[in-house]
Amino acid sequence: MKSNFLKTSLILFGLGSILAACNKNDSVGGGGEVKYQVKPTGYSATVASSSSGSGLVAVVGSSNSLNFTSGFLNVNEVDFEAENKTVEIEYELKGISNVDLFNLSPILGSVQIPEGTYDEVELKLVLKKSTDNTIPLTLKGIYKNEAGITTPVEFYFNEDYEIEVEAEDVVINSNSDYLGLINLQLNKLLLNVAANDLSLATKTNNTIIISSTSNVNLYNKFKANLNAFGDCDFED
Fold first, then answer.
1. What residues contact residue 112 under an 8 Å CB cut-off, 6+ apart?
2. Whole-angstrom Cα distance, residue 97 to residue 78?
3. What are the boundaries of the signal sequence (predicted)?
4. Looking at the domain assignment, is residue 143 inside a domain?
5. What would the pLDDT profile of 25-44 be if each residue is shown by its tens digit?
């Protein structure tokens, strides 16, 4: 059952942001357990002639759409922080977690925190630029234009980035379990992308490659949309 007592937002920003240092307790025992997991949604997106009509959830296989069919998220570090007026708890888990966005996502980690009401709870996924095939975000799919012609599309994001989830006024009960779902709304990567952006894109071996070195204008639009493609639910 979803808990309605959380006001949540997802903010994505570059590694330049700093997490404030303070006295901390790492993974305090007792209290309630909070687990966190990635949950992708919106696998198929509209791609309209006007960019204002793009980025909505589309029927899979429909014309004027991009249907994502595979993808991976590589998380280098998970940071958790909860605080109120009397206590602050921090937890850090390092090591690459490979998340297949098209299969059931694994639990990325968990932390137990003492019973109480917390003014703020933060969860941060740290993505780091890679020199091998474990790049932060890879998505592949099929673009179908108005005439029904299909073209493979591949998006490669290989930059330092942080995904931060913030929740306010979180009530933790002793011996209770909570699940934080980071919802990645893939359809929103197509916000402000018009059909011509894809139809006129440069193709490599008949595939539209979107990366920092290929179809850079499209890449910059996808990158900008990282600020809008996520939100969060907490379940108990």
1. 27, 28, 29, 30, 31, 32, 33, 34
2. 9
3. 1-20
4. yes
5. 444 556 888 888 888 999 99
